[in-house]
Amino acid sequence: MSLKPRPRPSRRPLGRRKAALLASAVSVCLLAAAAPAEPLGVGDRLYPYLGNPGYDVTAYDLSFTYSGANDKPLRAVTTIDAHTTTALDRVNLDFAHGKVESVEVNGRPAAFTGAGEDLVVTPEHRLPKGRWMRITVKHTSDPVAAKDQDGGWVRTADGLAMANQADAAHLVFPCNDHPSDKARFTIRITAPNGYTAVANGVPLGSERVGAATTWTYRTLHPMATELAQVSIGRSAVLHRQGPHGLPVRDVVPSADRKALEPWLAKTPDQIAWMESKVGDFPFETYGVLMAQADTGFELETQTLSLFEKDLFGDPAYPSWYLDSIMVHELSHQWFGDSVSPRTWSDVWLNEGHATWYESLYSEEKAHRPMVDRMKAAYGASDRWRAAGGPPGMPKPPQPGEKISIFRPNIYDGAALLLYALRQEIGRDAFERLERLWVREHRDSTATTADFVRLASAVAGRDLNGFFHDWLYGEKTPPMPGHPDWKSVAQGKAPQLRIPK
Ligand SMILES: [Zn+2]
């Protein structure tokens, strides 16, 4: 995600009451029958109620039927294939913004109820550990946000797009809404003829029946729920070739295709540049979705990054800046999408790296030296740490704060950490580490500890002390090689990310 440097409405955290896991191993059936359904989570420090224990999703099949009005609920069927990792009397799914009509487990009707932001499903019979299960939920998916909820569907001028990061996929479809449980996705969208629907991955075809067309897409790589994308609009889909034949497809409002073409034409070279830094593009396709929407951010949805169309052509944003934001979302395809954070406290691995390549691109292509940006970031870093926590231990989302956990401490604050690391271990080792990181953890999830381990292995020495200070220190450690860099008192630091 990259944030546009201007105010936007606050995004409130999602309120949930605390829940306790059933502790007793005795009389499980009696307890299960008697105890009220309660919301569960996988124990994420920042989002305690995201995800659910007891199963591992392998595939989602999402079907949406769009009426043509983006303020009306879509009809939807979500089918989840999963393996149980423990015996389950109930299965908790995350789902908080739609009406559930029916639930089946393995083809049999199942009872269901809501608890907090969970949909709690009780199958006819207890599900043993280590078994495959299929859950089918018929529901609606409401594109109009409820009070205190933000994210999920984005209403555009001509239809819908999606922005689920970090905790909003379950406002769109029932799921195990945590990046630690990635899965394959098949996404079908039925829309009135005249609309074009596009989703993550490759097209499997479209079928026109009467007044509506159904479009089907499939991801060829596992994906986190937060990275799902569905675009429905009066759109043109433009195809071109990326490096070594990579299919590139962009989705833009039909009326704007000519005006946006100079921007779209940049993507193949940007991919080639990223490949020269870290290795092959990790997915089956790439492209940008330029939507007529006012989100206040751009988002790295897998294989199809979301941008606000109006950024391009706005004289407030010079082209070098927009280029760097395009590269920011592109680099997330490696850092954040292919290699996903195991927990949301690892999000600095996403944003630190995306900011790094955004800055490196500006240095190499627009003569804006990274060292200047990093010196400015150093000046502000202590304040960012005080406001948002150190990069490795971000503060939880707070009421009234912008965009949940996405604060400067995990953007330029974390890129500064990577700069310190490059200063510490040298350019060759740093570049080797970056390539190894995305290769070793491709299509998977990884932790901060994994990064520290790999960096130490590449450098040939224990970097735990170095990382501890930079990741978790209240104050920014001295910058290796720049002993003169100092924290700057409030008001004196250059304001970052405002384009000039
Ligand atoms: Zn980002």
Gist?
Residues 1-34 form the signal peptide. It holds the Pfam family Peptidase_M1_N. By secondary structure, the chain is α+β, with helices and mostly antiparallel strands.
Write the layout of secondary structure elements.
Layout: E1 2-3, H1 28-34, E2 55-65, E3 74-84, E4 91-94, E5 100-105, E6 108-109, E7 111-115, E8 118-122, E9 132-141, E10 152-156, E11 159-163, E12 184-192, E13 196-199, E14 202-209, E15 212-218, E16 230-233, E17 235-241, E18 247-253, H2 257-264, H3 267-278, E19 288-291, E20 297-298, E21 305-308, H4 319-332, E22 339-341, H5 348-366, H6 370-388, H7 412-425, H8 427-440, E23 444-446, H9 448-459, H10 464-472
Parallel strand pairs: 2-12, 19-21, 22-23
Antiparallel strand pairs: 1-20, 2-3, 3-9, 4-8, 5-6, 5-9, 7-8, 10-11, 12-15, 13-16, 14-15, 17-18
Bound molecules: zinc ion.
The site of zinc ion has 6 residues, from helix 4 and helix 5.
Cofactor: Zn(2+)
Domain Aminopeptidase N-like N-terminal: 165-225
Protein name: Aminopeptidase N
